[in-house]
Amino acid sequence: MDKNTILKICPSFQVRFIGSEKYLYRAKDRLAWEPDIIKNEMFWEVWEFFLKPRSVLEALESINHENDYVINAIKGLIDCGILEVNNIKDGYGYNKFILSKKLINNMESVFFHISTSRMNWVNYSKSKEIQELDHNEMDIKVREEQPPSNFKKYRNSIPKYDLAELIPLKFFKSKINNSIFSKEIEGLNNKISLDLINLLLNYSIAKVGTVEMYATGKHILKPVPSGGARHTTEAYIIVNDGVDGIDFGAYHFNVNNHRLDKINISSFDVNKLIIASNVLVRGKGKKPKVIILHSCIFERSMFRYREARSYRVMHFDLGHIHANEIIVGSILGLDCTESYSVPENLIESILSLNPLKESVMSSFIIY
Q1: Quick count: other Cβ atoms within 10 Å of Cβ 163?
Q2: CA distance 206 to 237
Q3: Helices 298-331 and 194-202 sit at what angle, rounded to 10 degrees?
Q4: How many CB atoms lie within 10 A of CB 214?
Q5: Higher pLDDT, 182 or 274
Q6: What does the CA dihedral 28, 29, 35, 37 come to, rounded to 10 degrees?
Q7: How many angstroms separate the Cα of 297 from the Cα of each of 90, 256, 302, 306?
């Protein structure tokens, strides 16, 4: 082995943890396993050392074991694909020309992104690619694991308000013209009420139909598009005092039953959610009346799209929902705003969300 060879950990590999258990995950072919090698102390020393590209000679000088032992460990990791020769085109040869300083200091993330983005892209205009890269892959997936549910029922909640599938716009004062896209919205003095919340949910995140998808069966349709009909976004409605027709409290929008389920948390925690969701300067001094917190259930999207494109699809979905909320709010002349600046750790703690499975993304606030 040439001791001047520059090696690095293959960016498609990650060490992942479930509780105290650890395993290897390889993104490029979506395999996860628990090899004996990760129980070896030498594995961790070599893994940590080659997270950044370094030479074999540097490893021999830095890793405190006999040279033959280190060489054999390196060869073993090369043989199983965990270590690879640093390809200059993968980043380190030209990153100083195209990458910012911040990215250069986070090359592990850059490499992982590059690797996962090399996954096969399906050209849906070609029936052969649809069959080979989509249908055949999904046939394998559904044999390996159960597709995630389209619906969530919040555990610590009780059914509270059945919602109407149709709320006519004529029930409210409204104005539809080019001014709805202006930052200066004309107030129409609509009463903030359960019916108004119902209308917003109907136009943003409610179920409006179903569609049959290959291999994974029936999926839901909503007023907003979603990659592969995954619809990853959930809605939690926080209601302050003085909203007509609905009690102060925190609610989960049960899409399957078109219902608001009241979450069993204290008034103190509800107030903490209201304060935490209203952190932007434009909301300073205003009293939020209704807050819609949006979360994302990652596996709905990742089951189909896996690592490379999952995060893009999730943000597209959420952006469409926000757009619909803002348009409806503008038509009704509401004093409202949207925010991606939410203290997700605090909110997830209060709502008992596991952030590895479902994380808070944003809020829509009505004053």
Answers
A1: 19
A2: 13
A3: 120
A4: 12
A5: 274
A6: -30
A7: 32, 15, 9, 13
Could you read off the pLDDT of 190-225 as tens digits, one per residue? 999 999 999 999 999 999 999 998 888 899 999 998
Q: How is residue 16 written in tokens? A: 């992942």
- Beta-carbon contacts of 302 under 8 Å, excluding residues fewer than 6 positions away, are 310
Chain length of the chain: 367
Question: 3-class DSSP state for residue 222?
Answer: coil
Instruction: Please answer whether residues 188 and 333 qualify as being in contact, where contact means their C-beta atoms are separated by less than 8 angstroms.
Output: yes
Its pTM stands at 0.71
* Residues β-bridged to residue 229: none
Q: Which residue has the tokens 């709320």?
A: 167
Distances (CA, A) of 310 to 113, 148, 212: 12, 14, 21
Closest CA to 198 of 224, 161, 152, 159: 161
- Residue ranges of the alpha helices (H) in 31-100? 41-49, 56-62, 67-79, 95-98
> CA 262, CA 244: separation in Å to the nearest integer?
16
pLDDT given for residue 307 in this prediction: 56
Regarding predicted confidence, which is higher, 164 or 307?
164
Would you tell me the crossing angle of helices 41-49 and 67-79 to the nearest 10 degrees?
80
